[in-house]
Amino acid sequence: MSEAFFEVEGLNTWFFTRMGIFKSVRDVSFDLRRGEVLGIVGESGSGKSVTGMSIMGQVEEPGRTVSGSIRLDGEELTSLSFEDMRRCRGRRIAMVFQNPLMTLNPLMRIRDQMYEAISEHESVSEDEMHQRCLDALRAVGIPSPEERLTAYPHELSGGMRQRVVIATALLLNPDLIIADEPTTALDVTIQAQIIHQMRRQIDERGLGMIWITHDLATLSELADRILVMYAGAMMETGTTAEIIGSPRHPYTSKLLESVPSRNVPGEKLRQIRGTMPSLLSLGAGCPFMGRCEHATDACARGVPERMFSQTHRVWCHHPLEV
């Protein structure tokens, strides 16, 4: 197995508000190899997107990364200056957001926006920029790319806009792409097409990708490894086969039971009882204990890390039997 080129270790990102400190990401660690997709999954509020924004260095006040290490090819990103981190974004790390209209300027043609992404980092001729944009649009399956380049965002469908954003992220051939629920607002047919195109680009270019989602079904098709998060903390991590086929954490098991395709037709959909605890009042114990049917008094104390294989780790006092 190849060495990891990207490493996150002991990441803590907190938000300092008048109400108190929201510990949105707590002691999160993982790594990534080239050509690999890591899926980060969990409910809304579990810290997935904040983890992605922390990597990009784009957590805004009152939030900040209080501790931890983020290394890309051995270079520590948390110690970079604002300008150095700005040069790193787009060129070495790119991010694709859920809503392409957050990324695309409605007043600019697609061509001008893609040109700008290149010119911010490289000095190349307009002819070369034009050709690179056409190649990037073709790579993500956009038909008639010449015509799309002259269009405005509102003239394209939602799926086409998202492809444009992905093509823009690929323009500079970054080492890492962070995709934050990029297919959530699209219909299932377009989702499948985009997932297929992304997997192909990763395999061909040897990129690393972090795919943030709440949809385990999507990860089962796309990801090589999965990290399950809850209330800002890691619950379980392993290969896709280990997480989907033999989950050990009660929370992971409940997430899988909630997938509609796993429910019996005619019966009520299964759901996880209760709600996520406030990030203001988290103790030293397992954050899932209030909703877990396996919880005991021991769960209120520090959560142990248990290893079931070289890749499969669980943070739980009472891991499930396979």
From TrEMBL:
NCBIfam families with a match to the protein in the record:
oligo_HPY
Q: Which Gene3D superfamilies match?
A: P-loop containing nucleotide triphosphate hydrolases
**What kind of membrane protein is this, topologically?**
Peripheral membrane protein
For this chain, the family text in UniProt reads:
Belongs to the ABC transporter superfamily.
- Outline the extent of the ABC transporter domain: 8-256
* UniProt GO MF annotations: ATP binding
**Name of the protein in question:** Peptide ABC transporter ATP-binding protein
Question: Which UniProt key words apply to this protein?
Answer: ATP-binding, Cell membrane, Membrane, Nucleotide-binding, Transport
Q: Does the keyword ATP-binding apply?
A: yes
Q: Report the locations given in the UniProt record.
A: Cell inner membrane
Which domain of life does the UniProt lineage start with?
Bacteria
Q: Which InterPro entries match?
A: AAA+_ATPase (IPR003593), ABC_Ni/Peptide_Import (IPR050388), ABC_transporter-like_ATP-bd (IPR003439), ABC_transporter-like_CS (IPR017871), Oligopep_ABC_C (IPR013563), P-loop_NTPase (IPR027417)
SMART domains, from UniProt?
A: AAA (SM00382)
Q: Which Pfam families match?
A: ABC_tran, oligo_HPY
Q: Which organism is it from?
A: Devosia nitrariae
